[in-house]
């Protein structure tokens, strides 16, 4: 996507998010409102229609018919019991611990009148809700005690106390003359006329009757299922309004902060880009990390600045390319200086020898014999040959360093191919069927250098072992000799010598570049070489990745 499209998409997404936040705030407010009301307002069983319970009220388990669990809980919350009748008026199931209607006749059940009773007709069955109240049992026992003119039993008084109930006697003038239990505010006679089917709207449960002496018995207690609608509704409305307007206030602050943030998202990156360009003009190619727009740990752009990632990546690539070009120029200059210095240094000694012998031969002060001239000529030829080999190796090393040598890989079966290096001193061991993808001529030069070097520094009568095996990750070649070992200070720079230095007197046939060229050839194959050495000998290990 083009940057202009991304920019347009970014602004559209901001407005969509803003709109979604408004909708989400409104929905969350409604959810809180509904949860608050649901937790504090009772679920009136009388409001259920037959269609609501018709399909789910009865559970059939084999031959057993049961009232559904949700209706059991609904009846318990409404302080009552449910009875399930069939067409023959038989009680099929009921809720609660006791069955109040089980001992009644059909006539007694039909004559039963109790505030809050409700029935629902279903196919094959009828469902009856019968309110039960703790105040009813206390009222019945109290009326019996008063009718029989007995003392109140301790069991009844304990029930009154446990339920915070009150037994009150009002005279014919409606003066409260006696109170047993809790002492509540005096009732007025019209309050006894109050009656409601909604158990949750009654703060207090009351039962009353007129006694023989024209006084009135009242038994009253708090309603444990009291859940009025009006008070929670008012509180829920206050919460709803608070959340709604509070959320919009927060949203307004968020919009202001977002506006400032949006402006920062475009100003800061532009300043950063201009500073990067200024650094490039001053040949400063270091990668810049601005803590305001980059993560401190990863160095990547922060999420809100991802729009400028292509620009940042382009600047990084440009910096890397310019820095790489500058490094290549410096490396080329350094390599040229090393090549010229090494060449002049390594040519100086053999040239001095050639010049000295040629001067001696040209001298007229002494007549040289044929044998002496032959020795001088052989020495001069050896020095010239060494100079030619040195120039060739230096040129080849330069070509390898600049990747001017191309590989022509073929598949080599090392079990048979390595046999060309076997002789009375070199033993070849190949474990399994080892196949290596490599340039045959270059691999031969690698092994020639290493095996010749090992034979050169291995005492006569000792063995050089060349092993090859295919591990899980690579082809591994090992060259082991039993020489005196290589000093540690020379091991550290063993593959870094590009010329022989001053060591040109020990063997004119070698240029001192063999191991350096060997490592370059192995690097060209994407392989590795390592060496370990002690007084018992030296081990070279070559590893080539499986193709």
Q: If you had to describe this structure to a student in words, what would you say it looks like?
A:
With 547 residues, this protein is of the alpha+beta class. It folds into 5 domains: 1-41 and 229-281; 45-131, no CATH class; 134-228; 327-401, Helix Hairpins; 409-545, Histidine kinase-like ATPase, C-terminal domain (Heat Shock Protein 90), CATH 3.30.565.10. It is 47% helix and 19% strand. The chain contains 13 helices and 17 strands. It has helices spanning 3-40, 50-53, 69-77, 106-111, 134-148, 154-162, 230-281, 309-362, 370-401, 414-417, 440-456, 488-491, 514-524, and strands spanning 58-61, 64-67, 80-86, 91-94, 118-122, 125-131, 166-170, 176-181, 204-210, 216-222, 409-413, 426-431, 435-439, 464-470, 474-480, 528-534, 537-545. The strands form 5 sheets. The chain has a 5-stranded mixed beta sheet, covered by helices on one side. The chain has a 4-stranded antiparallel beta sheet with strand order 4-3-6-5, with helices on one face. Strand 14 and strand 15 form a beta hairpin. Helix 1 runs antiparallel to helix 7 (230-281) and helix 7 packs parallel to helix 8. The radius of gyration is 53 Å and the shape is elongated. The model is unreliable at 498-508 (pLDDT under 50).
């Amino acid at each position: 996507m083009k940057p202009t499209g991304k920019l347009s998409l970014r602004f559209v997404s901001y407005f969509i998010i803003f709109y979604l936040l408004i909708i989400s705030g409104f929905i969350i407010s409604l959810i809180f409102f509904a949860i608050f009301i649901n937790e504090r307002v009772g679920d009136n069983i009388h409001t259920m229609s037959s269609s609501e319970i018709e399909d789910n009220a009865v559970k059939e388990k084999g031959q057993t018919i049961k009232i559904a669990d949700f209706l059991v809980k609904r009846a318990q919350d409404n302080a009552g019991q449910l009875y399930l009748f069939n067409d023959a008026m038989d009680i099929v199931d009921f809720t609660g611990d006791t069955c109040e209607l089980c001992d009644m006749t059909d006539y007694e059940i039909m004559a039963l009148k109790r505030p809050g009773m409700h029935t629902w007709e279903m196919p094959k069955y009828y469902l009856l809700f019968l309110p039960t109240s703790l105040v009813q049992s206390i009222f019945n026992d109290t009326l019996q005690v008063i009718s029989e003119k007995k003392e109140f039993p301790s069991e009844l008084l304990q029930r009154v106390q446990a339920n915070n109930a009150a037994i009150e006697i009002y005279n014919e003038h409606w003066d409260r003359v006696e109170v047993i239990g809790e002492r509540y505010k005096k009732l007025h006679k019209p309050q006894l006329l109050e009656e409601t089917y909604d158990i949750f709207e009654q703060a207090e449960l009351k039962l009353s009757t007129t006694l023989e002496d024209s006084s009135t018995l009242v038994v009253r207690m708090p309603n444990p299922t009291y859940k009025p609608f009006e008070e929670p509704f008012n509180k829920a409305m206050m919460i709803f309004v608070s959340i709604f307007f509070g959320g919009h206030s927060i949203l307004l602050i968020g919009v202001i902060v977002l506006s400032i943030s949006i402006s920062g998202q475009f100003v800061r990156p532009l300043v950063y880009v201009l500073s990067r360009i200024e650094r490039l003009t001053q040949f400063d190619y270091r990668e810049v990390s601005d803590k305001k727009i980059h993560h401190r740990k990863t160095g990547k752009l922060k999420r809100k600045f991802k729009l400028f990632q292509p620009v940042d990546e382009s600047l990084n690539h440009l910096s890397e390319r310019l820095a790489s070009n500058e490094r290549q120029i410096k490396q080329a200059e350094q390599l040229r200086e090393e090549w010229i210095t090494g060449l002049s240094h390594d040519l100086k000694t053999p040239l001095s020898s050639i010049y000295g012998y040629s001067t001696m031969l040209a001298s007229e002060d002494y007549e040289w014999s044929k044998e002496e001239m032959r020795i001088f000529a052989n020495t001069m030829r050896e020095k010239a040959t060494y100079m030619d080999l040195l120039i060739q190796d230096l040129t080849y090393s330069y070509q390898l360093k600049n990747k001017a040598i191309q590989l022509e890989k073929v598949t080599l079966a090392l079990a048979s191919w390595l046999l060309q290096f076997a002789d009375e001193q070199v033993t070849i061991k190949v474990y399994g069927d080892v196949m290596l993808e490599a340039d045959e001529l270059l691999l031969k030069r690698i092994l020639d250098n290493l095996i010749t070097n090992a034979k050169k520094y291995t005492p006569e009568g000792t063995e050089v072992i060349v092993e090859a095996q295919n591990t899980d990750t690579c082809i591994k070649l090992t060259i082991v000799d039993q020489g005196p070992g290589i000093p540690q200070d020379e091991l550290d720079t063993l593959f870094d010598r590009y010329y022989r230095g001053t060591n040109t007197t020990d063997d004119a046939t070698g240029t001192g570049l063999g191991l350096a060229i060997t490592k370059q050839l192995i690097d060209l194959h994407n392989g590795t070489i390592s060496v370990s050495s002690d007084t018992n000998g030296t081990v070279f290990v070559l590893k080539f990745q499986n193709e």
